[in-house]
Amino acid sequence: MRANRLRLGVNIDHVATIRNARGGHLPDPVRAAKLAAASGADGITAHLREDRRHISDRDIERLSQEIELPLNLEMAATEEMLAIALRHKPHACCLVPEKREERTTEGGLDVAAHHAHLAPFIAKLNDAGIRVSLFIEPSKVQLAVAKALGAPVVELHTGAYCEAEGAERLRQLARIQAAAREAAKLGLECHAGHGLAYDSVGDIAAIPELVELNIGHFLIGEAIFIGLEQAIRRMRDLMDQARASATVTAT
Ligand code: PXP
Asked: Out of 126, 214, 227, 231, which could bridge 9 as a Cys pair, Cβ 3.0 to 4.6 Å?
């Protein structure tokens, strides 16, 4: 059986990073979201960080009002972010770990260690009809706890795979493949993302249990050279090509 089409969530945070480098309104991340929609994206992802280094509260408000694609709001599990999520009710909330001093999300959320803190957040988001996703390391323990916490979705951190070389890269790929299989067994919808680029997306897109990839930094960087539409279309093609060769293991 052929694997289903893989969804592409385009993360527009770094359009806001460029805007914020100068202050003012340009470039506009909402315009990027609309262009992404017209270029084959299946969803828009935005990370409202505690320090507002890129996406702002106003961006979330405008994205909620102006885009038609499902919005995936990435956020830390804090009371402030929970209130914002409950106000805007995005399609999905992806809970991520956040440290002020980090440059980007380093590593997955340790759901096993923070089980007690996360449980009420997930319950409130679930009750509001927001699809909760937990951004975790590809590990059996993290998956089991994600399931026990009642999150319907997990997103596997692909950063270590994207950064690794040689034998280590193969080892990291095998971890992600095994975790995706385990997620499917547990009945969790499985996404993946972080650090994906043209040279790394193929092996990840070929994992048949994956339903969605979220990609941002590389696409916004590539857009400088070939434009956002072309960058997204090329990524979409690479995902589709990899997917076409992937088969779902008959159970
Ligand atoms: N998924 C999650 C949960 C993330 O935190 C990020 C980065 O904000 C991404 C996907 C996208 O990663 P990148 O910008 O490296 O493509």
From this structure: 214
